[in-house]
Design a protein that fits this description.
The chain has 429 residues and is mainly beta. It has 3 helices and 35 strands. The strands form 7 sheets. It has an 8-stranded antiparallel beta barrel with strand order 1-3-4-5-6-7-8-9. The chain starts with a helix and ends with a strand.
């Protein structure tokens, strides 16, 4: 990676950034690309440097982020350099000029099938005259990028019939979103997000809240998988460091560790109780903590090898849906709030034997009769949404109005039944 850094800094006459400069650049970091521009984050997929093809492990760490006037360059999580730039899309070939401290680096670029190619020469050699037919054949540095934000799932909203899907929340730095949930009155949304643009993953997630229209976005600090108390005044969540299930006030204050052994917490509707998975000798179980009494109970008699995050309470608070793995079989099941003895049903794969995978993160319909879940099926390798009858009496059916092939994750049904939240990569423009 040292060679990559040296070459690129030479090509764009780069400069190491102070923490103050980095913060300023983060504030103007771009969103999705718009037609006819380079605006947006782009991840390198190949690089030929003076005839040498740089290895994929190094190339994939390189990212260019274009705002209207500047390019920021990152290698992994490290923000390295910035340069001013201009483009001329009408030139033949299209030209790009990158300038820092008055020194110009002329190059050419091409946008083809959603990919960005940039060709540069060493300083003093002038602009390349044509796009190489073979990578690196007619220039010193040949870079190929794909839109980085196509890899990142962002928070979307759509109508409950699957129509009009659209991005609800964007953030210049926290570019990957997950685990969305509505407050019980439908006025607020909680979710987690991490800085993919810096090379981070979900372990570095922060908790965010916003209004139902996506406005008023607020960072509440480290944590993941938020779930609202019935009155909307508190949030339970999981944290990677220190690990465990936590609670806090809805404004992010008053953090308290509830159970260091728990994970994937969900607040029970109409009760001051929180459910989460725990691991003990013999397997996994679901524990419900009564906050008022300070007592707890385990819901399952039959042990699972694994219980995933993303369990969901029915709005009436009587049933808990979860994804579990038992003897190499993945199941969607529901268990009664008072435990296995009061009621337990396996819904999938019983109702759909050919299902390939069940995505964690479910949503109940407001009437507590159906469960919305993403499934991978033989005829659709993407995570298509299906409606599952909570009693297992009606065959599953796909949510109408969805485009086949689009991925849907972390779904949440609004309390009024009108909208569904989901996370998904941005659709190509």
């Amino acid at each position: 990676m040292q060679r990559v850094r040296q070459v690129l800094l030479m090509c764009i006459a780069g400069v190491w950034l102070s923490s103050g400069q980095a913060a300023a650049l983060a504030a103007e970091a771009p969103g999705a690309s718009t037609p006819g521009s380079l605006r947006g984050p782009w991840r390198a997929v190949s690089m030929v440097d003076h005839g040498h093809r740089v290895g994929q492990a190094e190339v994939r760490q390189l990212m260019f982020a274009f705002s209207d006037k500047t390019i920021t360059m990152r290698i992994g999580p490290k923000l390295l350099a910035e340069t001013a730039y201009t483009i001329d899309a009408k030139a033949k070939p299209a030209s790009i000029d990158m300038t820092f401290q008055g020194q110009a680096t002329p190059g050419i670029y091409a946008l083809t099938d959603g990919k960005l190619r940039i060709c540069l020469n060493d300083l003093g050699k002038g602009r390349p005259t044509k796009t190489p037919t073979e990578p690196g054949a007619d220039c010193d540095v040949d870079l190929l990028f794909t839109p980085a934000d196509r890899e990142w799932s962002v928070l979307h909203i759509m109508n409950a019939d699957g129509s009009d899907p659209r991005v609800l929340v964007t953030h210049p730095v926290y570019t990957s979103h997950g685990s969305a949930e509505w407050s019980s009155d439908g006025s607020k949304i909680g979710f987690d997000a991490w800085r993919s643009i810096y090379g981070e993953n979900y372990v570095a997630a922060h908790l965010f809240v916003c209004s139902a229209d996506g406005g008023g976005l607020k960072d509440l600090g480290p944590g993941a998988m938020p779930s609202w108390s019935p009155d909307g005044k508190r949030i339970t969540f999981s944290c990677y460091d220190p690990r465990g299930v936590w609670t806090m006030n809805a404004d992010g204050t008053g953090r308290e560790l509830l159970d260091a052994q728990g994970w994937g917490a969900e607040w029970r509707p109409k009760r001051d109780e929180i459910s989460y998975s725990v691991y003990q000798s013999g397997g996994a179980n679901i524990r419900v903590r009564d906050l008022a009494k300070g007592t707890s109970r385990d819901l399952l008699d039959d042990r699972y090898e694994q219980i995933y995050w993303g369990m969901a309470w029915s709005p009436d608070g009587q049933w808990l849906a979860f994804k579990g793995v038992s003897e190499q079989r993945t199941e969607l099941a529901v268990v009664h709030a008072e435990g296995h003895g009061k009621g337990f049903r396996v819904l999938l794969p019983k109702a759909m034997p050919d299902v390939k995978d069940i995505m964690q993160g479910f949503a109940w319909s407001p009437d507590s009769r159906q469960i919305l879940v993403g499934l991978i099926t033989p005829d659709n390798p993407a995570r298509h949404l299906y409606l599952i009858d909570a009693e297992g009496k009606v065959p599953p059916k796909p949510l109408p109005g969805l485009r086949k092939g689009r991925w849907h994750n972390d779904v949440a049904w609004s309390p009024d039944g009108k909208h569904i939240l989901f996370t998904s990569p941005r659709e190509p423009q």
